[in-house]
Amino acid sequence: MASPKETIQRRAQRVRRQLKKVAGARPRLSVHRTSKNIYVQVIDDANGHTLAAASTLEKDLKGSLKTGADTAAAAAVGKLIAERASKAGVKEVVFDRGPYIYHGRVKALAEAAREGGLSF
Fold first, then answer.
1. Name one GO cellular component term (predicted).
2. Which fold has domain 4-115?
């Protein structure tokens, strides 16, 4: 029987494998969440570079948020990543939710990034 860590890694790889089939030349918007914070990166897999990144640990966000572990914080990070990605010249991405269900904080981040101008 697989350990919980192996199961999570397998789920993330399954999601990523499906994304690579449909991505084309679009960069990947990768989400990582913990019990206290949420992190997001726009990654160019062809070159292996991070084009933009944002998290709830950043100084300007940390002071204005009550906690880094709620949907309001995820929405703030989503708007910030959309702004930074547009500065980097990225308009279209592929959303990589990793092993996380598209619900709650992950969904709030995705919707805020869409409102901020990212297309996926």
1. cytosolic large ribosomal subunit
2. Nucleotidyltransferase; domain 5 (3.30.420)
